[in-house]
Amino acid sequence: MSTATTGSTGYVNPTGDFRRDQRYIETRITADGRDGYPVEADRYRLIVSRACPWANRAIIVRRLLGLEPVLSMGIAGPTHDERSWTFDLDPDGRDPVLGIERLQEAFFARYPGYDRGITVPAIVDVPTGKVVTNDFPQITVDLSLEWTQFHREGAPQLYPEHLRAEIDAVNRDVFRDVNNGVYRAGFAGTQEAYQRAHDRLFARLDALSERLEHQRYLVGDTITEADVRLFTTLARFDPVYHGHFKCNRQKLSEMPVLSAYFRDLYQTPGFGDTTDVLHIKQHYYGVHRDINPTGVVPAGPDLSGWLEPHGREALGGRPFGDGTPPPPPVEAEVVPAGHRPV
């Protein structure tokens, strides 16, 4: 898994199908604090790596909802070893708020001998230094539903009640065949397992293209949680999944509807300006040594097309519904120059 340590440097399943360990810490931070962790300003720290698609979701949602003033964010480097993500981007190699060198320390503080993946995104309770949750699908939903008292004025409804069942259905298909499907192709250990994952992935992408041909967003006429979840995989498709994971029937840039849909989101505040392509490439090509033994990071591809007009406005839709775009990212969280097409 690109987002978790595993106790070894191997990711490919030599017997066939890749199986993702989905045993996450299911503790929730809620408005009523029923799990012992109530929503509070300045109490928690969201730990991410910009390389990770699951963490990228949390970065986008936090930004769209305007939670930066109350939920701080620590950014780990793009690579990790068998033990943990590390804070090597910080000057002294320690997270400046938690004071730790490795995310593993926060997991062990709560669960000594924790034997599952040390994954991002994770939310840490700052006063105790203990991890609260790394349940990435629930984290973004709870940011939308439980943190409402701290949403910015004009925050969009990313998980509106009247669309929730449809969003959940789309998310299930997208996770199975696309979000996780690229990993099932990339980490397959037999030709047959790879072919199954490859075919399922592109069948779903074809279905998504049909769905999006006449509507601007996946569900309803505004951006929702479903769009956030698909976007982070599409952002990594041409830079890493097409070549590194052998998802190469076509590039995203060769799929007209999905490419335009992606460009529309990429050019929307909160999406492209949180996407770090350099970190993405450094992670996948540097960490998955059983796929890329040399660790050499490719120079390409040319992603300048991400900035080309998309024409999706013609389909109508209102990106933020009755809300407004988020303000520019805070200075400390700006993706460095040269890490994405501008």
Automatic annotation (TrEMBL):
<feature type="active site" description="Proton donor/acceptor">
    <location>
        <position position="183"/>
    </location>
</feature>
<feature type="active site" description="Nucleophile">
    <location>
        <position position="52"/>
    </location>
</feature>
<protein>
    <submittedName>
        <fullName>Glutathione S-transferase-like</fullName>
    </submittedName>
</protein>
<feature type="binding site">
    <location>
        <position position="85"/>
    </location>
    <ligand>
        <name>glutathione</name>
    </ligand>
</feature>
<dbReference type="InterPro" id="IPR040079">
    <property type="entry name" value="Glutathione_S-Trfase"/>
</dbReference>
<dbReference type="InterPro" id="IPR004045">
    <property type="entry name" value="Glutathione_S-Trfase_N"/>
</dbReference>
<dbReference type="GO" id="GO:0005737">
    <property type="term" value="C:cytoplasm"/>
</dbReference>
<dbReference type="InterPro" id="IPR036249">
    <property type="entry name" value="Thioredoxin-like_sf"/>
</dbReference>
<feature type="site" description="Lowers pKa of active site Cys">
    <location>
        <position position="284"/>
    </location>
</feature>
<feature type="region of interest" description="Disordered">
    <location>
        <begin position="310"/>
        <end position="342"/>
    </location>
</feature>
<feature type="compositionally biased region" description="Low complexity">
    <location>
        <begin position="331"/>
        <end position="342"/>
    </location>
</feature>
<dbReference type="Pfam" id="PF13410">
    <property type="entry name" value="GST_C_2"/>
</dbReference>
<dbReference type="InterPro" id="IPR047047">
    <property type="entry name" value="GST_Omega-like_C"/>
</dbReference>
<dbReference type="GO" id="GO:0004364">
    <property type="term" value="F:glutathione transferase activity"/>
</dbReference>
<dbReference type="InterPro" id="IPR036282">
    <property type="entry name" value="Glutathione-S-Trfase_C_sf"/>
</dbReference>
<feature type="domain" description="GST C-terminal">
    <location>
        <begin position="160"/>
        <end position="287"/>
    </location>
</feature>
<dbReference type="InterPro" id="IPR010987">
    <property type="entry name" value="Glutathione-S-Trfase_C-like"/>
</dbReference>
<dbReference type="InterPro" id="IPR016639">
    <property type="entry name" value="GST_Omega/GSH"/>
</dbReference>
<dbReference type="Pfam" id="PF13409">
    <property type="entry name" value="GST_N_2"/>
</dbReference>
<feature type="site" description="Lowers pKa of active site Cys">
    <location>
        <position position="241"/>
    </location>
</feature>
